[in-house]
Amino acid sequence: MSETPLACRRPLIAILRGIAPSEAVPVARALVEAGFGLIEVPLNSPDPLASIAAMADALGDRADFGAGTVLTPEEVVAVAGAGARFVVSPNTDAAVIRETKRRGLGSYPGAFTPTECLAALKAGADALKIFPASMMGPSGLKAIRAVLPAGTRVYAVGGADADTFPAWLAAGADGFGIGSALYAPGRGADEVGRRARAIVAAYDGAVASPLGRK
Known about the structure:
Blueprint: E1 12-15, H1 21-34, E2 38-42, H2 48-59, E3 64-68, H3 73-81, E4 86-88, H4 94-102, E5 106-108, E6 110-111, H5 114-123, E7 128-130, H6 133-145, E8 154-157, H7 165-171, E9 175-178, H8 189-208
Parallel strand pairs: 1-2, 1-9, 2-3, 3-4, 4-5, 6-7, 7-8, 8-9
Helix pairs in contact: 1-2, 1-8, 3-4, 6-7
């Protein structure tokens, strides 16, 4: 898979579902200061392109900003124009993946079965978003890992949290998408920052532990 700008960031994606443009920059700044370098705004948020553009303009030299819940190639074009550097989807859609790569963005499609995982990689995905992770569990990821090409990067999203980081890492996860444990509409930047610092500390500790080392 191709190298992307995301490769140098801690593999934790903050998912800001429901954030409004007025909140975007303060919340993003709190996340960056806590150690997050990958921040996603799902497209079913209020005016998501404005939020992405504002965050990228204010903090684009310190973090990579992307769009989530991207379902069509036309949406890829729109988020690229807003300054997004990566695209996340809940599903595997080859047309979306191809347009993402044509635009030079990182591609993180959702996948759950071996068929979906391999189809996403064939279309050019940079990494796989295992979703919903709570349904697969670490044991399911370990089984799927056996058939994935060497070097495939996998993010567990939807059920992975600070308490389960070690088990997921031991099963073969490379990173995580964190949503409501970090941000929910109405949650202020100070509270988001506090939660983010705790999650970063938990992740760093899990990576350093014997269980978390692959």
